Amino acid sequence: xxxxxxxxxxxxxxxxxxxxxxxxxxxxxxxxxxxxxxxxxxxxxxxxxxxxxxxxxxxxxxxxxxxxxxxxxxxxxxxxxxxxxxxxxxxxxxxxxxxxxxxxxxxxxxxxxxxxxxxxxxxxxxxxxxxxxxxxxxxxxxxxxxxxxxxxxxxxxxxxxxxxxxxxxxxxxxxxxxxxxxxxxxxxxxxxxxxxxxxxxxxxxxxxxxxxxxxxxxxxxxxxxxxxxxxxxxxxxxxxxxxxxxxxxxxxxxxxxxxxxxxxxxxxxxxxxxxxxxxxxxxxxxxxxxxxxxxxxxxxxxxxxxxxxxxxxxxxxxxxxxxxxxxxxxxxxxxxxxxxxxxxxxxxxxxxxxxxxxxxxxxxxxxxxxxxxxxxxxxxxxxxxxxxxxxxxxxxxxxxxxxxxxxxxxxxxxxxxxxxxxxxxxxxxxxxxxxxxxxxxxxxxxxxxxxxxxxxxxxxxxxxxxxxxxxxxxxxxxxxxxxxxxxxxxxxxxxxxxxxxxxxxxxxxxxxxxxxxxxxxxxxxxxxxxxxxxxxxxxxxxxxxxxxxxxxxxxxxxxxxxxxxxxxxxxxxxxxxxxxxxxxxxxxxxxxxxxxxxxxxxxxxxxxxxxxxxxxxxxxxxxxxxxxxxxxxxxxxxxxxxxxxxxxxxxxxxxxxxxxxxxxxxxxxxxxxxxxxxxxxxxxxxxxxxxxxxxxxxxxxxxxxxxxxxxxxxxxxxxxxxxxxxxxxxxxxxxxxxxxxxxxxxxxxxxxxxxxxxxxxxxxxxxxxxxxxxxxxxxxxxxxxxxxxxxxxxxxxxxxxxxxxxxxxxxxxxxxxxxxxxxxxxxxxxxxxxxxxxxxx
Length: 841
Description:
With 841 residues, the protein is mostly beta strands. Among the domains are: 24-195, no CATH class; 487-569, no CATH class; 572-663, no CATH class. It is built from 11 helices and 43 strands. The N and C termini lie far apart (144 Å).
């Protein structure tokens, strides 16, 4: 009972003291006393704008505008600035007549960590000073009379970093920080925050957690420390942007942990890092790839060197190890490292590469093991110097679902530092950089002898070369199998030449394939054309932006071709355009039928261009092409043209033949044609001239179609323009419209009697204009010169109503021509009858 009454008395006395303390007048004058108490504990000048007394839940003060200034040797800016701070007092200090802060809690403070030109941090100086002052631990015993180190904490804080007077872009936000004195000679700290950059809008950078303890020592370098650090739930792309200022395009979850123990002069470092679901930003992760590494070493803050470094990353049945020294870090990164791989399966590298290179086939298999040892040294003032050797044993590539296998055997590897050598004289040699050189080695690609392959890989890019004999089919299948497909000629056959595959890692640019080869005994297939092209020889060129066939010598059926063709690469319709300059020795309607007609179809040759009649859309309707076409002999039924040349444009079913020239009917033809096959009915439009054509041959072409025997003789010229559409010859005639300005000389019309005399009509010269519309030919006034006089002719003709023309001689005598073209009838008429030609009934 006596003990209980004593405790009650002490409690009552404490309560009375609290009341007297809280409610005595002039409490606001304690502002300077509180600032002095905090400043004494921290060794820094402290200012407070305002103080408010708080009784619950614990007696203390609400401080407004707290500023803790930094040592001027580090920065003129405050070290801590906080608008709202809660200060909790130690009750027992009041009994001794002192004001002692037990806990100082700041909400949303701004904290500046500064490193001076000597490489020292302001926080380290603060900790060193605290270690020298005989202050009691934060959780001191009741009998302890010395002032205790207050428990310092900050919630939702922002931690900024400065190097001398330059504020860096890195910050920690939403930080939860605590600092306390754990025992007589040891301190503790904790932190949990989100790393950000002030110059970028970052998300998913993860959370950084730190727990640390350290003990009293004469100086910071000899202070025993124990630090546990974790960086969790970060996203690889956002972390790369945080550290380098640019999203490098990689994705995956990042987890890092590290334990540091010892003193800053000899700090034992053990760490683990892992990236889960690793992949490139534009590649859908089809398999879970985890990259992990564990490292250990000894770090010295005096030399800035991480020595005795040992890192290991297990890879299936093998391992990848890194050992050596990292540092010192001055103006750049120095290191002396040895990298060793032992029995590492190439399949492990392929799993990573599949997440790093777009369109790498999922069925590609790489078999074999890699063994290598590389020594890398770098001085901060110079480039990396590496040397080493290795070998890939029993290397095989299996592609296209196991259909294609390429056996490489043992592949030698050499590691050097050298400039990148380019073949082009316009390219400048790059600065020396590390390279892994591969080969050379013999490669069986279906040629008469193995080809030679080799290449290199560097931090900036890669290059592989293949020279010798190879089969294009095998080469293209291999390219598809390893993800190097792309636009190329649909050509098979044997070739001899060189292929160069190169690219840069930066920006994930696709590989550039450049090649030049002499093709022989090849075969090309054109989509939409039934007949394959047999290539006797050609020069194949693949450039970064185009693919071409030059010096072509080819055969399609009975037609021999020569010339060149080229197309753009990496394009999509309708931007892809084929350009050509081709010559054919002969071409016939039968060839056209065999090339384009549906095999089951039986149609006249002039309906071949109606691609819409084929089952489903024709591939030719998707094509675009332009170029020059020359044909030695063109046979369209009985029409034969020699030395034909034209500029051809094919634009998704619209064909244009411009500047068409040909020797035709012992004369010449020059004109322009457009043919539209995009609709169900083919549309034709043409303009041009005929000169010195043989009307005897024209009559022979019309023989058996309109009239038997010779219908006209002599030579003729004409200027024409016509349009027509249809799928049959009758449809074309019914829809045709045309204008024809013609001139005939030194000939005859054997089926028409000579007006005014006996015998067939002989023509010295005949000029006139013809118009065709709705199947009706209309002849304007024409002038006919014969040995019997000069005649004016006009009239019309049609298949339905036959001939209806009037002939009027310069002596006012007139005749009418009626009947049909096969059986014309010429009769003399009176002047009245000749004045008017009857209209069509």
